[in-house]
Design goal:
This protein has 2 domains: 211 residues, Ribonuclease Z/Hydroxyacylglutathione hydrolase-like (Metallo-beta-lactamase, Chain A), CATH 3.60.15; 55 residues. Strands 1-2-3-4-5-6-7 form a 7-stranded mixed β-sheet, covered by helices on one side. A 6-stranded mixed β-sheet has the order 8-9-10-11-12-13, with no helix packed on it. A two-stranded antiparallel ribbon has the order 14-15. It is an alpha/beta fold and 302 residues long.
């Protein structure tokens, strides 16, 4: 069984150089490329006379200088965070100090204050104590003179993840929830496959036709991509369930079956992705595990 996804891995940019991606929207790519951040984190400046900055990126002096240069003297009124992974949020404090703009986001107060024992991004990758100046929840609006952003709560990749719809423009800032260059990493306990699938279905019901993601280039026709990602996740779970029914009974033994050509550096990320699917299968009553599904604990079909 196979289901190949098509990714958009081309991207025209130069680090530190602002690039218009839509009227009134400029993108600056941070110089923090990696297997999980692609070319780097996208920072967006929204507005014409007064600006909001979406995802200020890593704590990097050159990236901060590029943001301030792109603002060109226009006041930055809001610093908006899609989620508190450090490649998106660490630059917020320095940008706030330079502009006195408040930081908007969902916040981490309701979630575990410490990290998981296994994290594909590294234990330091998440700001577990992120507390925004202005807490934003689903459906709330953030406004500037020429624009309005509607917050959409989209957990899955992260429990605090928000997307932002640019009202009247059919454009959505999709953070790490939907990207064109790759599928989203869903790694427990930070990530939840049940939440991720529900959040995809939430966006599928909307009408925005351009997504501006946290990594990689713009995504046109996003509903088609969302349907493909939902189908891909369904196929992946069917493959995992088939393996369990065939007697391959642990997460660590399922990984090489599902990812036969994986780079060894990404094995932990793959195991966490399988774990996320297994948790979803358990929640749906299709798989049984005697206790929490750790990588070496035996699984069996229900």
């Amino acid at each position: 069984m196979s289901h190949e996804l098509s990714f958009k891995t081309t991207m025209n940019f130069a680090y530190g150089e602002p690039a218009p991606v839509s009227p009134g929207i400029v993108r600056i790519v941070a110089n923090n490329p990696s297997p999980l951040t692609f070319k780097g984190t996208n920072t967006y400046l929204v507005g014409m006379t007064e600006l909001a900055v979406i995802d200020p990126g890593p704590n990097d002096e050159a990236h901060l200088a590029a943001i301030l240069k792109a603002a060109a003297g226009r006041p930055i009124r809001q610093i908006i965070i899609t989620h508190a992974h450090r490649d998106h949020v660490d630059g917020a404090a320095a940008l706030k100090a330079a502009t006195d703009a408040p930081i908007y986001g969902y916040g981490r107060e309701d979630f575990a204050p410490v990290g998981p024992s296994t994290n594909p991004q590294g234990a330091e990758f998440i700001d577990y104590v992120f507390i925004p100046d202005v807490k934003v929840t689903h459906g709330e609006l953030i406004e500037g003179p020429e624009w309005r952003l509607e917050a959409l709560y989209t957990p899955g990749h992260a429990p605090d993840h928000l997307c932002f719809a640019l009202l009247g423009r059919s454009t959505l800032f999709s953070g790490d929830h939907v990207m064109a260059w790759n599928t989203t990493l869903v790694a427990p306990p930070e990530g939840s496959m049940s939440d991720y699938v529900a959040s995809l279905q939430l966006l599928l019901a909307r009408s925005e036709n351009v997504y501006l993601p946290g990594h990689g280039g713009r995504l046109d026709g996003p509903q088609r991509t969302i349907r493909a990602y939902l189908l891909h996740r369904r196929w992946r779970e069917e493959s995992i369930l088939e393996a369990i029914r065939g007697g391959i009974g642990t997460i660590q033994s399922i990984v090489p079956v599902i990812y036969p050509t994986i780079d060894q550096k990404l094995t932990s990320a793959a195991a966490l992705s399988v774990q996320a699917h297994v948790e979803h299968l358990i929640a749906r009553g299709l798989v049984i595990c005697d206790g929490f599904p750790t990588w070496d604990r035996q699984l069996s079909p229900a």
